[in-house]
Amino acid sequence: MKKIALAAIVAVSFATLAGCAGTGNDSLRSETEATVSTKIAEGKTTKDDVRTMFGSPMKTEFTDGGLEIWHYELTKLHSDAVNFIPVVNLFGTSASGQKKELVVLFDSHNVVKRYSMSESAVSQKTGIFN
């Protein structure tokens, strides 16, 4: 009975950890700093243009002067090899991947004043890997 329970736990662990996980705005999936720079022109691209290209923002903020800032994010993580070591994976998990972030500042006429696109490495660890 113990062998069956252990086998079930290992099977569930592998099934849970085997894939990739992603959160955020999927429209950023194929975007880079270079591709975004061909789509957004400061002083020219409008708020409607940005919404058409990237959808609704994940977060909206306002500056002290009342200008609107839109935030788009996409994080893609994949399981690290250590997750597939029997018994060890019962004590924690480890995942790594990339985070993309697009921040757009609009002027008072709803035209892009400034924008920034960045991509950085990220990791997420739990248990003994933390």
From TrEMBL:
Lineage: Bacteria, Pseudomonadati, Pseudomonadota, Betaproteobacteria, Burkholderiales
Entry superkingdom: Bacteria
UniProt KW keywords: Signal
Provenance organism: Paraburkholderia metrosideri
Protein name: Lipoprotein SmpA/OmlA domain-containing protein
Secretion signal, residue range per the UniProt entry: 1-18
